[in-house]
Amino acid sequence: xxxxxxxxxxxxxxxxxxxxxxxxxxxxxxxxxxxxxxxxxxxxxxxxxxxxxxxxxxxxxxxxxxxxxxxxxxxxxxxxxxxxxxxxxxxxxxxxxxxxxxxxxxxxxxxxxxxxxxxxxxxxxxxxxxxxxxxxxxxxxxxxxxxxxxxxxxxxxxxxxxxxxxxxxxxxxxxxxxxxxxx
Length: 183
Known about the structure:
Elements: E1 19-26, E2 33-40, E3 54-58, H1 67-70, H2 74-83, E4 91-95, H3 119-135, E5 145-150, H4 152-163, E6 170-174
Parallel strand pairs: 3-4, 3-5, 5-6
Antiparallel strand pairs: 1-2, 2-4
């Protein structure tokens, strides 16, 4: 890693820090336990009345739920943006973008046939969002829910959100493509 001179938005600074927590949950879609990483903003545990918008943030191909916080330093970026009043406090949920229904064989970057949901879409809609809403102080309506992703995660974001516009209000796709979309 070669740091850019004068750029520190992704470095830990002397500002209030949030936490990246691990949330294990059982997926009815896959029949297995899954792990999501959840960023909570500074002061989350002190102010127990505040509810937060949620960003579901997806990794690229070959990575997993750890990528955004270990390589991408999403937690430090958010801490710094919050300290500089350039972002609003939010929860950021990072889950593994690979999912297989019971009895199916894993396939790299598994995609659904046109008009059908993928196993990962079912995990997000039926398992992950309900788990996060039940265990964190979320603003659980469409107007306070976003999804974004990089590469493979961008394609997943587009497929999931455009098929579920009743659940997502904000969409971010970075270096990705839309595949097999038939709403």
